[in-house]
C-alpha cells in the first residue's frame, strides 16, 4: 500500500497526480494554479496542492514518478540536431541550454523538492505513461491501447495490449514521422498557436469540404498511409526536425498556399478563408483515416473488443466518434486528460502497480481537483461589494437562472482534470437559442465564429436529443454525436455546422452538482440540457479557486455566478 | 486552495553529489552497448555543459565587464 | 529630476522613433501588465486578508484591461509598420509569473508593487508629454487613460503597505529593501543578457566543430519508417 506522486512537465501541460493505495485521490494541472495557460513548468504548486488535499507530507511518499526518461529524450534531441546539420544551427544552442540547464536534472529536482531519497524518484517512458493513463482507469479488463501524440522520447505512435494490471508494448512508429506533428504544422499554417489551436482546427473542419479541389491528392504528398496501418510523412514539407516553433517548411506553403496570418478576423463566406477551412476538413479526414488504420492494426494484434486512446491526438473528439463507429471495437475509452497532463497519472499508476498496489477503480468523474473555500469566497465577494447571497438549494437557483435565459458561471465541487469543463467550472446557459451562443461569444469568449459550444444532458435523456447512446467517452466530452434534426428547437446553441455536438452525459457519479441542476431544470418543465462551456476568458486557464472565480466575474459580463451555495447576480 | 510550499534547500555538498551521480548516469547511458556508437556526442555535451556553467557565472559580472570595455 | 525621468526623456526619440519600435515597446508594456496581473491574482489567492484579496483582484482586473489596451494599440502600429507575421506582437499576450508574493512576502510585495507603479507614473507622464509634442494624440490619450489607474494603484498599495507594516519606519525599510533588490535584479538581467550572447556564439562554434558527428549519426541512426516491433 503506497502513496505515489506522478509528475508531467517541461513540454506542455504540466500536472501532478496522487495515488494512495492504488486509488487516484487528486490530480491537478499546473496551469490551474499558476494561471498560465498550458503551463509547462515543473508543477511543484500542483504537487503541493495534491499533497495538501490528501494530507500527505512529501517525505511520506513512497515514490515520485516522472512521465518521461530524460536521458532518452536528450539522446533523441541530440541525434536529431546532429542529423539535420546545418539546418539546426538556430535550435542547437537553445535546445542544449534547455536540456543541460534544466531537463536532465528533473529527477534530482523532484527528490529535493519532496525531501525524497533519489532512489525513490523514478521515471517511465512517455508513451508507456500515456498508455497506462488510459487502460488502467478504463473499465476494461482487456483492451488494445493506441497512443498518438507529437513525440515522446523516440516514438510518436505506439500500440499496447492491456490485460488486467498488465500492459505490453507491441510496436511503434518513430519520430520524425508523427501524426501529432502533422496536426501541429497545419495548426501553425492556419495561423493558430500550436498546442492550443488544435481545437480550433477541428472546429473549422466542419465548415470545409474535405478533398476539395484536389486537396486529398496534395495531402498524399504530406502523409502516406500504408495498408499495414502505418504512415509516413513527406518530410520535405515539414520543419519540425529543425524548427521547434513553426513545424512546416516553404514546400508546404508552395503546396497548400501561403500560411494564414495569425489574428486576422475570419470570413468563411470569402474564397480565401473557405480554402483554409477546406484544408482543415481534409486534414481532419486524413487524421481520421490514419487513426482508423492504426486502430485496425491494434485490433489485429490484440483481438481485444475494447480500445483505449491516449496522447494529444486522442483529444480529437470527431476522430474518436469515427473510431467508435468504424474501428471495429465494442467500446472506446479516452481519459479526460489524454494529453501530456495525463502522463502524470499514468506514471503514478505504473509505479503503484510495481509497488504492489491494485489497479485503480475505473474513472467515473473528472472532478479530481480542489474545491473552493466558500467562506473565503463570501468574505472576498463582500469586500468587492458584490451582491452576494446564500441559497438553500443552489441547483434549483441555478436552474431558475438558466431557465430565465441567464448566462451563469457555475463554480461547484472540485475542479476538473483535463481540458474540458464538465460542470464544476463551467459557463452554463440555455442550449436552445442560437443567440445565446453569439452572446457568450461577444461578451466572454471572443472565439472565432466557427467554434461550437457543447451541450450537457442528463444521461438517461440523451436519446431524446441525439442520435446515439451514452458511452465510455460521453461523460468526459471526448467524442461527438449527431444532434437529432427533429430537436433543433432545443439544440440551437449547441449544434455545430456539420450537425454534430460534443455532448456530455451527466450522471450523479460523474458530475453530481450539474446532475442536480439538470434534474431541477427538468422538474421545472424545461429540457434537462444546458450549453456547457469552460469558465475562462480568452487565453486564460479554466478558473480554479474562489478568487479566480470572483476575478472572472469582475472582468466578464456573465449574468450570475454560483459559488457552491452563494449566488451573485449582476444588476440588470 | 493550497499555498505554494516553502522547501528547505539541501546543502550545497548534497546537491553537488546528486549532480555528479546524474552526470555519471548520463555518461553510462551513452556508453551503453546499444548506443556506444553515439559516445562521441558526450564531447558535445561536455563542451555545452562547461559553457553553460561558465556563462551562468558570467551573468553576475557581465555588466561590470561590459562597463569596463 | 529622477533617473527614471531623465532616462525616459533622453530615450524618447529612440524608443518611439517609428511605428515598428512603438509597437515593440507597447507590446512589452502589454506583457508587463499581463505578468503583473498573474502576480496580483496569486497574491489575491494567498493573502490571509479578504480586504487585501479584493484590492488585489481589482488591481489584477485593471492590469488585464491595460494589457489588452496596450496589445491592441501595438497591433495597430504593427499593421501600419507592416511587421512580419512571425513577429512577437502578433502572438497572444503571455507572460510568466515571477511569483513575487511567494518570494518576497506580502510586505515587500506591496512595497515592490508600489515602487513599480510610482515609476510607471513618472515614465508615462514623460511619454504623454512627448506624444503631445509630436501630435500623437492617440498614444497620449491611451497613456493618460491608464495613468488614472496607475495613480490609484500607487495610492492604495502605499496605504496597504503602511497599514501592514509594524511601523512607518518598517514600511520605509521595505521600500528601500525592494529598491535594492530591484537594482540587483536589473544587474543580473543585464548580465544574463550578455552571458546569453556569449553562450550563443560559443555554442555555434561547438556546433561547427561537431559537424562531422552529423555524418556519424546519419550512419549510426538512419531514419526508420513504418512499424518497429517493441
Features of the shown structure:
heterotrimer, A: 572 residues, alpha/beta, Nucleotidyltransferase, domain 5, DHBP synthase, 3 domains, 8-stranded mixed sheet, 5-stranded mixed sheet, globular, B: 69 residues, mainly alpha, flat, transmembrane helix (chain B), membrane (chain B), transmembrane (chain B)
Distance between the termini of chain C: 71 Å
Q: CATH class of the largest domain in chain A, anyone?
A: Alpha Beta
Return the domain count of chain C: 2
Order of helices and strands of chain C: HHHHHHHHE
Count of distinct strands of chain A = 22
The second-level CATH architecture of the largest domain in chain C is Up-down Bundle
CATH fold category name of the largest domain in chain A: DHBP synthase
Strand arrangement, major sheet of chain A: 13-22-21-14-15-20-16-19
Description:
The complex is a heterotrimer of chains A (572), B (69) and C (230). Chain A has 572 residues and is α/β, with parallel strands linked by helices. Chain A folds into three domains: 1-67 and 69-123 and 340-363, Nucleotidyltransferase, domain 5 (2-Layer Sandwich), CATH 3.30.420.40; 179-334, 2-Layer Sandwich (Nucleotidyltransferase, domain 5); 374-569, DHBP synthase (Alpha-Beta Complex). Chain A contains 19 helices and 22 strands. In chain A, helix 15 packs across helix 18. Chain B has two helices and no strands. The relative contact order of chain B is 0.06. With 230 residues, chain C is mainly alpha-helical. Helices cover 81% and strands 1% of the residues of chain C. Chain C has helices at 3-15, 19-46, 50-81, 100-104, 106-134, 137-164, 168-209, 211-220, and one strand at 228-229. In chain C, helix 5 runs antiparallel to helix 6. Chain C is globular and about 70 Å long. The chains are: A alpha/beta (572), B mainly alpha (69), C mainly alpha (230). Chains in contact: A-B, A-C, B-C. Chains A and C meet through helix 3, helix 4, strand 8, helix 14 and helix 19 of A and helix 2, helix 3, helix 7, helix 8 and strand 1 of C.
Amino acid at each position: 500500500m503506497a502513496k505515489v506522486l506522478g509528475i508531467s512537465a517541461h513540454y506542455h501541460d504540466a500536472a501532478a497526480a496522487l495515488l494512495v493505495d492504488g486509488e487516484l485521490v487528486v490530480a491537478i494541472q499546473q496551469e490551474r494554479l499558476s494561471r498560465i495557460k498550458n503551463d509547462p513548468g515543473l508543477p511543484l504548486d500542483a504537487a503541493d496542492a495534491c499533497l495538501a488535499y490528501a494530507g500527505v507530507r512529501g517525505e511520506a511518499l513512497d515514490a515520485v514518478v516522472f512521465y518521461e526518461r530524460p536521458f532518452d529524450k536528450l539522446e533523441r534531441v541530440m541525434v536529431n540536431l546532429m542529423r539535420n546539420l546545418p539546418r539546426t544551427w538556430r535550435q542547437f544552442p537553445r535546445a542544449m541550454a534547455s536540456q543541460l540547464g534544466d531537463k536532465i536534472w528533473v529527477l534530482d529536482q523532484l527528490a529535493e523538492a519532496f525531501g525524497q531519497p533519489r532512489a525513490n524518484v523514478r521515471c517511465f517512458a512517455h508513451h508507456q505513461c500515456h498508455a497506462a493513463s488510459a487502460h488502467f482507469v478504463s473499465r476494461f479488463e482487456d483492451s488494445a491501447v493506441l497512443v498518438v501524440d507529437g513525440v515522446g522520447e523516440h516514438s510518436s505512435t505506439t500500440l499496447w495490449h492491456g490485460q488486467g494490471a498488465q500492459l505490453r508494448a507491441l510496436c511503434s512508429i518513430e519520430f520524425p514521422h508523427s501524426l501529432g506533428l502533422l496536426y501541429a504544422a497545419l495548426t501553425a499554417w492556419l495561423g493558430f498557436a500550436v498546442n492550443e489551436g488544435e481545437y480550433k482546427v477541428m472546429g473549422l473542419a466542419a465548415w470545409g469540404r474535405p478533398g476539395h479541389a484536389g486537396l486529398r491528392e496534395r495531402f498524399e504528398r504530406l502523409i502516406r498511409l500504408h495498408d499495414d496501418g502505418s504512415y509516413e510523412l513527406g518530410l520535405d514539407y515539414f520543419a519540425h526536425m529543425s524548427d521547434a516553433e513553426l513545424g512546416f517548411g516553404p514546400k508546404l506553403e508552395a503546396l497548400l498556399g501561403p500560411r494564414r496570418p495569425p489574428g486576422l478576423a475570419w470570413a468563411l463566406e470569402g474564397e480565401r478563408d473557405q480554402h483554409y477551412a477546406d484544408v482543415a476538413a481534409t486534414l481532419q479526414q486524413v487524421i481520421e483515416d490514419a487513426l482508423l488504420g492504426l486502430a485496425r492494426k491494434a485490433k489485429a494484434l490484440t483481438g481485444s473488443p475494447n480500445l483505449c486512446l491516449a496522447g494529444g491526438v486522442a483529444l480529437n473528439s470527431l476522430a474518436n466518434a469515427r473510431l467508435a463507429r468504424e474501428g471495429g471495437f465494442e467500446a472506446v475509452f479516452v481519459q479526460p486528460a489524454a494529453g501530456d497532463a495525463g502522463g502524470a497519472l499514468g506514471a503514478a499508476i505504473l509505479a503503484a502497480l510495481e509497488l504492489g498496489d491494485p489497479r485503480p477503480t475505473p474513472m467515473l468523474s473528472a472532478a479530481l481537483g480542489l474545491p473552493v473555500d466558500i467562506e473565503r469566497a463570501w468574505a472576498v465577494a463582500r469586500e468587492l461589494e458584490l451582491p452576494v447571497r446564500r441559497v438553500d438549494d443552489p441547483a434549483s437557483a441555478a436552474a431558475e437562472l438558466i431557465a430565465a435565459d441567464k448566462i451563469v458561471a457555475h463554480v461547484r465541487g472540485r475542479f476538473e482534470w483535463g481540458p474540458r469543463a464538465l460542470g464544476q467550472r463551467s459557463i452554463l446557459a440555455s442550449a436552445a437559442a442560437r443567440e445565446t451562443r453569439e452572446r457568450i461569444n461577444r461578451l466572454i469568449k471572443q472565439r472565432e465564429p466557427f467554434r461550437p459550444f457543447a451541450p450537457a444532458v442528463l444521461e438517461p435523456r440523451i436519446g431524446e436529443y441525439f442520435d446515439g447512446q451514452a458511452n465510455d467517452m460521453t461523460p468526459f466530452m471526448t467524442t461527438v454525436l449527431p444532434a437529432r434534426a427533429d430537436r433543433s428547437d432545443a439544440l440551437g446553441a449547441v449544434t455545430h455546422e456539420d450537425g454534430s455536438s460534443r455532448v456530455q452525459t451527466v450522471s450523479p457519479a460523474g458530475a453530481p452538482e450539474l446532475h442536480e441542476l439538470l434534474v431541477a431544470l427538468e422538474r421545472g418543465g424545461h429540457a434537462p440540457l444546458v450549453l456547457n462551456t469552460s469558465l475562462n476568458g480568452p487565453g486564460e486557464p479554466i478558473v480554479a479557486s474562489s478568487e479566480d472565480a470572483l476575478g472572472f466575474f469582475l472582468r466578464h459580463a456573465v449574468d450570475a455566478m454560483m459559488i457552491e451555495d452563494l449566488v451573485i447576480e449582476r444588476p440588470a | 486552495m493550497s499555498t505554494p510550499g516553502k522547501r528547505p534547500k539541501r546543502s550545497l555538498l548534497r546537491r553537488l553529489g546528486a549532480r555528479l551521480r546524474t552526470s555519471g548516469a548520463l555518461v553510462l547511458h551513452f556508453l551503453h552497448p546499444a548506443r556506444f556508437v553515439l559516445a562521441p556526442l558526450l564531447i558535445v555535451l561536455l563542451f555545452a555543459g562547461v559553457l553553460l556553467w561558465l556563462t551562468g557565472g558570467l551573468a553576475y559580472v557581465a555588466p561590470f565587464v561590459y562597463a569596463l570595455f | 529630476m529622477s533617473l527614471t525621468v531623465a532616462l525616459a526623456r533622453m530615450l524618447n526619440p529612440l524608443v518611439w522613433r517609428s511605428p515598428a519600435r512603438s509597437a515593440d515597446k507597447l507590446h512589452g508594456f502589454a506583457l508587463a501588465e499581463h505578468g503583473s496581473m498573474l502576480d496580483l491574482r496569486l497574491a489575491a489567492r494567498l493573502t490571509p486578508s479578504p480586504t487585501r484579496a479584493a484590492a488585489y483582484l481589482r488591481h489584477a482586473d485593471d492590469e488585464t484591461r491595460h494589457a489588452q489596451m496596450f496589445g491592441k494599440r501595438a497591433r495597430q502600429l504593427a499593421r501600419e509598420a507592416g511587421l512580419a507575421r512571425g513577429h512577437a506582437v502578433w502572438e497572444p499576450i503571455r507572460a510568466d509569473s515571477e511569483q513575487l508574493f511567494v518570494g518576497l512576502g506580502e510586505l515587500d510585495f506591496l512595497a515592490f508593487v508600489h515602487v513599480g507603479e510610482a515609476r510607471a507614473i513618472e515614465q508615462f507622464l514623460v511619454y504623454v508629454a512627448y506624444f503631445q509634442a509630436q501630435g500623437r494624440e492617440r498614444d497620449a490619450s491611451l497613456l493618460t487613460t491608464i495613468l488614472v489607474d496607475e495613480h490609484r494603484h500607487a495610492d492604495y498599495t502605499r496605504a496597504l503597505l503602511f497599514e501592514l507594516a509594524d511601523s512607518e519606519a518598517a514600511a520605509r525599510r521595505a521600500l528601500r529593501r525592494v529598491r535594492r533588490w530591484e537594482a540587483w535584479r536589473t544587474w543580473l538581467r543585464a548580465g544574463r543578457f550578455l552571458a546569453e550572447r556569449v553562450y550563443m556564439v560559443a555554442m555555434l562554434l561547438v556546433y561547427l566543430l561537431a559537424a562531422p558527428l552529423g555524418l556519424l549519426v546519419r550512419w549510426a541512426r538512419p531514419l526508420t519508417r513504418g512499424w518497429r516491433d517493441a
